[in-house]
Amino acid sequence: MSGQVTMVKGHSRRGGGWALSGLAWIVGILFVLPVLWMLLTSFHSEENAAKNPPDIAAPLTLDGYRAFFDTGPWPSIANSLTASILSTALVILLAFPAAYALSIRPVKKWTDVLFFFLSTKMLPVVAGLLPIYLFAQSVGFLDNIWLLIILYTSMNLPIAVWMLRSFLSEVPVEILEAASVDGASLTRTLRSVVAPVVTPGIASAALICFIFSWNELLFARVLTGTVAQTAPVFLTGFVTSQGLFLAKVCAASIVVSLPVLIAGFAAQDKLVQGLSLGAVK
């Protein structure tokens, strides 16, 4: 009798596992389907891309990509790469010792400090747009890539501190005590002892900060012109009074999304390890 009950429970668990797996696949397909549709549309001509209902079996062409590259997107893409990479590097350099102080060597009232970091993300971005614009205008910093680097660093720093603190709280205290006995300084402890242990966490925090910086539009749209224009701002230029050219816009969106996709695929193992490390207590 007990064997039959065990078999029924085993079948029900397997059935539940299959149901959850099927649901996960459905949700994944729903998320990926718009991207695949955009990719397919980017290889259609403007005439076929504008058809309603769309023609899936329409002939493929590279005209959309040729039209996009003819507009000269490279300066904008270079600006986005510069702002995203430099701001991410600054965020990690600043957030790592801050997270160390809030986790392994906690300061007084560290919960208040974390709440302050979190409260900075509660303010609507548009509320700080006008003061920042007036300040940048007064110091001659408009249309300057360094203004975006500073802004992206300050915007992503609270997120990185929160993430790295959860990762650093998992570092065994015994490792730090051994480093202290060996006479290692704080800088050497952070660089040679703590950093290798939380490398997945650093990679996941850096990837998220890079994505947020790359996708930011509002500040870049208002504070830049032609010199420091970023890739998202460049994409908004395709919406003109002449209409929206779907094939060209889809091709531009695919090209602009490639750096984020490449970074995500390159760091996916570290990202999964880092998120798991920060979630396990």
UniProtKB/TrEMBL annotation:
Compartments where found: Cell membrane
GO process terms (BP): transmembrane transport
Domain of life: Bacteria
The keyword Cell inner membrane is assigned to this record: no
Pfam families registered for this protein in UniProt: BPD_transp_1
Membrane topology of this protein: Multi-pass membrane protein
ABC transmembrane type-1 domain sequence ranges: 77-267
Regions that span the bilayer: 20-40, 81-102, 114-133, 145-164, 193-214, 245-267
InterPro entries the record matches: BP-dep_ABC_trans_perm (IPR050901), MetI-like (IPR000515), MetI-like_sf (IPR035906)
GO CC aspect terms: plasma membrane
UniProt keywords, alphabetically: Cell membrane, Membrane, Transmembrane, Transmembrane helix, Transport
Stretches assigned to coiled coil: none
Family: Belongs to the binding-protein-dependent transport system permease family.
Name listed for the protein in its UniProt record: Carbohydrate ABC transporter permease
Organism of provenance: Kribbella jiaozuonensis
